[in-house]
Design goal:
Rossmann fold; 10 strands
Length: 756
């Protein structure tokens, strides 16, 4: 009765109001009298109006901006992914993406396309949007600075940091003296030009440096702590100097600049003495995600915007205000982590690539059209490297670092990256840098950032470092060593439970190392320790329940698969165990490219899902990650496909290949250490004799009576498999079963596939 009543009401409402609308439209035509409205007279004119309308829509400023954002994000991510694969920071790829889209390449060879996508009148919109991204990014950089660490390491850090600024600044000023007449814009004083060249030579990219330190697993070492502290001190000092330089350039004289600097000093005092305590009180109350309500978030964002606005009005640039707003945020680690997560994604993923491309659109490498200009560019790179690298290294050696550590500090402090581009764009906007000098400086930023990784590798090679310290730390000589690699911390328990079943009674003759690698661009320096603790908490808890000692190993990585293989091959391990979770989202190129492997959908698996043909095992179901690990790892690899693995009492071993005799080594370990019962199934239709396999069963039975036997079942079905906790299978047998018509593995329990 209720359904009929609702249907009747729906029909009456729709019908009544449809009739009223029709009546209004018909009578509305009489209002057109005297308006001289000329309706279209032909289909051609109607089509022409449609085309004109579409053209107008495409050329609308908002449509152009959206098209620019789409293009920039795709191209920047592709180049960022390529450079990550070759071991370079993704920021280099994103900067080069900007240069490719700019006049240096696309603009030079496809000018019509460039003019359509990036018309000159649209660039101010792109610039302002990119500036918003920079403001958010500098806010995050300020929050990621741990001032407590800075206080604890202040003495050495200040000496190294200030030396790494003064030395290149002086060289830059001297270099500006030699090129002033040739390259300074008309009307620009030497002091303004020289100060900007000096500060451009002195800057260090703290965010990129922090990522490199994480990726190379140096963050827990002495040198990692020192260099992070130096970079933090360098950042604060360099931004203060930059603020003074901007004040002077805008004011035009030293006396006028003093007024701006005095206002800036007053602003800093107000922020530290008044605003910071106020924010701390709010942060202490709202430190959890549940308490961080929208009005509270609005207070902190308002502080950011007001701070940026104040410094822009004073005359020292909005970015300095954003940076200081981040620095004075509450010291509570949980609070900062929550806020960084809110801001970082939108700034790094969406808005910051716009800045890179906008910089690329300004970079005209084609202007360097003579040998003299390229020689000057080479000298800029040389001065930058010598100033920053040598200045930092000598200062580090003076305060007591070894030559190796001093050189590594020099190489890391020479990293410039994004921060250099910020300085260069400010100088370009102020008219201090010409397009030629701007292009040379961008090339210098790319070269000095690119060379950091190879320089560290060369230093390690020169000092004959045989193995990565992390690998040496986790490598131990014993009879059986297992390396388990997990991504999802919740699934790590089952991997440990499986590993423990192989070595439970071996005591000191076996070790288990639990390894977790995380993409460096998904981590920040501020919450790294907390992230590690949370990630390893479940597996450490499980190890206590199992009474199994484990070694934990964490690394920030740019290429997880390569690092897993590297650790497995260089360590003294006998077995690598990795987890495999099947999903319609796994294994897609776009997922790997954009880093959203849980959000980008694999079309093939969607089709299987919709048609009901979704299978856990296809002829090659493993994603690129697992296939790469299988192909490159030199030790045996076990891939665990987990389905509620709570115990390992009864194990099923199917055999389709006569070379599967190695599988009995693992079955014997399960019997000895976990008292497991083993059931072996052999395909009778195979032509192979399997004599060696029969001998293995007899041999194990002599040691462990009634613990292993062959099943007499000619075929396998779901009911039979329900009796087992685990299937132990070689990768060759697994392939053959999946290629056969009778693929009973679809209904299997947890599965351990071993590549020997």
């Amino acid at each position: 009765m209720k359904k009929f009543k609702n249907l009747f009401f729906y029909i009456v409402i729709i019908g009544t109001f449809s009739f009223l609308m029709k009546w209004i439209i018909e009578h509305g035509k009489y209002l057109e009298l005297g308006k001289k409205i000329i309706p279209p007279t032909s289909k051609n004119s109607q089509w022409g109006e449609f085309i004109a309308s579409m053209k107008h829509n495409i050329e609308h400023p908002l449509a152009i901006l959206l098209a620019q954002i789409i293009t920039i994000l795709i191209v920047a991510k592709i180049f960022g992914w390529i450079f990550k694969k070759i071991g370079q920071p993704s920021v280099i790829g994103e900067i080069i993406a900007g240069i490719v889209l700019g006049p240096s390449l696309i603009g030079a060879y496809f000018p019509e396309y460039s003019a359509a996508l990036f018309p000159k009148e649209s660039l101010p919109n792109l610039q302002f949007l990119s500036q918003i991204g920079l403001i958010l990014f500098m806010f995050v950089v300020g929050m990621e600075l741990d001032l407590k660490v800075l206080k604890n390491k202040a003495n050495d850090a200040v000496i190294i940091s200030h030396a790494s600024i003064v030395f290149p600044f002086t060289l830059g000023l001297g270099f500006a003296y030699t090129i002033y007449n040739s390259f300074a814009p008309k009307g620009v004083q030497f002091l303004s030009f020289g100060l900007f060249i000096g500060i451009a030579m002195s800057i260090t990219a703290f965010p990129v440096l922090a990522r490199i330190v994480q990726e190379r697993n140096l963050h827990k070492t002495k040198i990692g702590t020192v260099v992070i502290t130096c970079a933090a001190a360098d950042d604060i000092t360099a931004w203060c100097i930059l603020a003074a330089v901007i004040a002077y350039v805008k004011a035009g004289s030293f006396i006028s600049a003093l007024y701006i600097i005095a206002l800036a000093a007053l602003y800093v005092i107000v922020m530290i003495k008044l605003v910071k305590p106020f924010l701390k009180q709010i942060g202490d109350i709202h430190a959890s995600k549940e308490n961080l309500s929208k009005p509270v978030v609005a207070i902190f964002f308002l502080t950011l915007i007001l701070s940026a606005y104040a410094t822009e009005i004073i005359g020292i640039h909005a970015l300095f205000g954003a940076f200081l707003a981040g620095v004075i945020m509450p010291d509570n680690m949980k609070f900062r982590n929550l806020f960084i997560e809110k801001v970082e994604d939108i700034s790094l993923v969406l808005l910051l690539p716009l800045f890179f491309v906008f910089t690329g659109l300004r970079t005209q490498i084609g202007l360097l059209d003579s040998l003299y200009l390229w020689q000057t560019c080479g000298l800029i790179i040389l001065v930058a490297v010598v100033g920053k690298f040598v200045g930092s290294a000598l200062a580090a050696k003076f305060v007591g670092q070894s030559w190796k550590d001093s050189l590594m500090i020099g190489a890391l402090m020479n990293t410039r990256g994004l921060m250099e581009l910020v300085v260069l764009n400010i100088g370009y906007d102020l008219g201090v840098l010409t397009p030629e000098v701007f292009a040379m400086m961008v090339i210098m930023a790319l070269v000095t950032t690119f060379m950091t990784g190879p320089a560290l590798d060369l230093i390690n090679y020169i000092f004959k470092k045989q193995k990565d310290e992390s690998i040496i730390r986790i490598s131990k000589l014993s009879k059986f060593n297992i390396l388990l690699s997990f991504g999802n911390s919740d699934k790590s328990r089952n991997l440990l439970r499986l590993s423990n079943s192989f070595v439970k009674k071996m005591d000191k003759n076996a070790t288990i190392t639990a390894m977790h690698l995380s993409l460096s661009d998904q981590l920040n320096q501020y919450n790294l320790e907390e992230y590690q603790t949370e990630t390893f908490a479940p597996i450490i808890e499980e190890s206590k329940e199992l009474n199994q000692k484990i070694t934990t190993f964490f690394k920030a990585s740019v290429d997880i698969e390569n690092d897993i293989v590297d650790v497995a091959n260089k360590g003294s391990f006998d077995l690598l165990i990795v987890g495999y979770g099947n999903s319609i989202y796994d294994g897609t190129f776009l997922g790997k490219l954009f880093g959203f492997t849980t959000k980008i959908i694999n079309p093939d698996r969607i089709i299987d899902k919709v048609t009901g043909k979704e299978k856990l095992f296809e002829s090659n179901p493993f994603d690129e990650r697992i296939r790469f690990i299988i192909a490159k790892t030199e030790i045996p690899v076990g891939i665990l496909v987990e389905r509620d693995l709570s115990k390992i009492n009864k194990v099923f071993i199917p055999i389709e290949d006569e070379n599967d005799d190695f599988i009995f080594e693992y079955s014997e370990m399960l019997i000895e250490n976990s008292d497991a019962e083993i059931v072996v199934w052999q395909n009778e239709e195979s032509n192979s004799g399997f004599q060696l396999i029969k001998e293995n069963i007899i041999s194990i039975n002599e040691k462990y009576p009634n613990k292993i036997h062959a099943t007499k079942n000619k075929s396998i079905d779901k009911n039979f498999l329900n009796d087992f906790d685990l299937i132990l299978i070689s990768i060759e047998t697994w392939k053959k079963i999946n290629e056969s018509d009778d693929n009973w593995l679809e209904d299997c329990p947890s599965l351990l596939i071993i590549k020997y």
